[in-house]
UniProtKB/TrEMBL annotation:
This is Pyridine nucleotide-disulfide oxidoreductase. The keyword Nucleus does not apply. Pfam families: Pyr_redox_3. GO terms for molecular function: flavin adenine dinucleotide binding; monooxygenase activity. Keywords: Oxidoreductase. InterPro entries: Auxin_biosynth/cation_transpt, FAD/NAD-bd_sf.
């Protein structure tokens, strides 16, 4: 940019340039706003709706959340209780919990909307409502300009997108536009009396819809190209939950309903009496194609991220069938510096493996993001505490954390604790660090470090968890070599970025890993062995 005289000029800095703009005042937007505000950063949240949590005013369509709200857990430890509370945000106010809003195990979505509104009000968060983002552009100084529906421009050095997945993930099938989408289809079962209904999708929204029609629809077929995956088997809470499996009972007990495995080739509305003709290729019958007839077709195939609001020069790269922005271990766009993501969009890092797509998972990832932003942009190192670098002291710290932490419990295998051992033997303990980010940051610094995570074993989803003839157990193993199928602590030692050794703490029915002989002593031995193998300071 040059002046009339030809002299280069510096782009003017608008007076309202913020440190951060946050798009979306759902659970993630409110969580990061509270953390940014507590840290003293300049921020603003732009929300298209008139209240926080706009998404939950509509979804789930049948209003029952599948996020657990277990109020009574036999303990007054707030950290342990958060393991069973899947809806509360992290807060310095111990009373600002979702469990105060409902006692239902699967609560109503309207209760979550009320909770989010109270959360925003309690902290007086800077949220601008009725402000729909229409365009995101890059500033010449590397920041961002966000233009809303009124033409007002908002400026920030960095942008945090917390919109969630807002566009229907409609499959590319000829004629699919004539079908009903999950987001708008009637939820009144009376509208489906005596009808033949095809539901596309095999996830919770599809089976939730099917269950709603069991009493009125004549025939219900649930169809998709992939097998149904049950959460109790995979441990991924986004797979089909038990609360939505009544339909499967009707299929297996020959009540006219069915699960169809295969691909819909076309949807044609215009047959007899306006019925649908659906061409379907059955995967279990060598792609045999058959024409099926229905009164209604309902598309329940999930949602995707809307990247259309970004200018080409700052549009994030998309992955997973273009449903998510590609993220670095720091939850930053891999191709747009300064563009961060919070909330369910963070699940790109652990897609269908952990809990990053849900409040009880991403609340910890969002808190980790706040520490990452402080480290990167505000010269504030990750909070840590120092420990003697002795095996017993380190083992004591690990045992205390794995027996209480909610973050490690919820974000299994994704977020862990980090112990960094200095050259002089002093140790520093950092809590709740994304494991991939820990490896990335430590690889630059070198030296020794240990990661502490809770994890399921590699074959945990390969066996029927209720079949006692095949269930493996490590209840009696004390040497740390058995990678149990069930959730258990895993401690890994890395030296200069390379894995040196792994210790698996013995699984336990009550998830209490503090037995002196079974848990603590083997961990002390492992740490002593690994610390003894460290090169001396003179040899470094």
């Amino acid at each position: 940019m040059t002046s009339v005289s030809g002299t280069p000029t510096v782009p003017a800095t608008p007076p309202d340039l913020l440190d951060y703009l946050v798009i979306g005042a759902g659970p993630a937007g409110l969580q990061i706003a509270q953390l940014l505000q507590a840290a003293g950063h300049g921020y603003r949240v732009l929300e298209s709706g008139r209240t926080p949590g706009t998404f939950f005013r509509t979804f789930p369509r049948h209003r029952k959340l599948i996020s657990v709200n277990k109020v009574y857990n036999g303990t007054d430890d707030p950290e342990l209780n958060m393991r069973m509370d899947w809806n509360s945000l992290l807060s310095p106010d111990p009373e600002l919990l979702f469990t105060r809003y409902s006692k239902r195990y699967f609560p109503d979505a309207d209760d979550l909307v009320r909770y989010l509104a109270d959360f925003a009000a309690a902290f007086e968060l800077d949220v601008v409502y009725d402000t729909r983002v229409e365009r995101i552009g890059r500033r010449a100084d590397g920041g961002f300009t966000v233009t809303d529906q009124r033409g007002v421009r908002h400026h920030a050095r960095r942008l945090i997108v917390a919109t969630g997945l807002t566009r229907p993930n409609t499959p590319d099938i000829p004629g699919i536009e004539t079908a009903d989408d999950y987001s708008v289809v009637s939820v009144d079962p009376e509208d489906f009396i005596d009808q033949r209904v095809l539901i596309l999708g095999k996830g919770n929204s599809a089976l939730e819809t099917a269950d709603n029609l069991l009493e009125t629809a004549a025939v219900i077929h649930v169809a998709g190209p992939h097998s149904i995956r049950l959460a109790w088997n995979t441990h991924f809470v986004g797979h089909l939950r038990a609360i939505n499996v009544n339909f499967l009972d009707t299929y297996q007990l020959k009540l006219r309903n069915a699960v169809l495995d295969g691909r819909v080739l076309s949807v044609d509305k215009g047959g007899d009496a306006g019925r649908y003709r659906v061409r379907f290729a059955f995967s279990r019958a060598d792609e045999v194609v058959k024409e099926l007839h229905y009164d209604r077709v309902v598309v329940c195939t999930g949602f995707r991220f809307d990247a259309s609001i970004f200018d080409p020069d700052c549009r994030p790269e998309l992955v997973i069938d273009d449903r998510f922005a590609a993220l670095s271990p720091a939850y930053e766009s891999v191709n747009v510096p300064g563009l961060y993501f919070a909330g369910t969009l963070m699940q790109q890092r652990d897609f269908k493996k952990s809990t990053g797509g849900f409040i009880h998972g991403f609340r910890y990832a969002v808190r980790a993001l706040s520490h990452i932003l402080d480290e990167r942009h505000h010269q504030r190192p990750w909070p840590r505490r120092s420990l003697p670098g002795t095996p017993v002291a380190l083992a004591d710290a690990v045992v205390a954390r794995v027996n209480r932490s909610s973050a490690l419990w919820q974000q299994f295998g994704v977020i862990g604790d980090l112990i960094v051992v200095d050259h002089d033997g002093r140790a520093h303990y950092r809590e709740e660090v994304p494991v991939a980010y820990a490896h990335e940051s430590r690889s630059r610094d070198g030296g020794d470090y240990f990661t502490i995570t809770l994890e399921y074993g590699p074959d945990h989803d390969k066996v029927d968890p209720f079949d006692i003839t095949v269930r493996r157990t490590a209840q009696n193993s004390v040497d740390g070599s058995v990678d149990a199928a069930y959730l258990h602590p895993v401690i890994r030692h890395f030296r200069d970025g390379e894995l040196s050794a792994t210790h698996n703490m013995t699984e336990n029915l009550e998830n209490e890993w503090d037995h002196p002989r079974v848990h603590h002593a083997p961990l002390v031995a492992f740490l002593a062995r690994e610390l003894d193998r460290r090169p001396s300071p003179a040899g470094r």
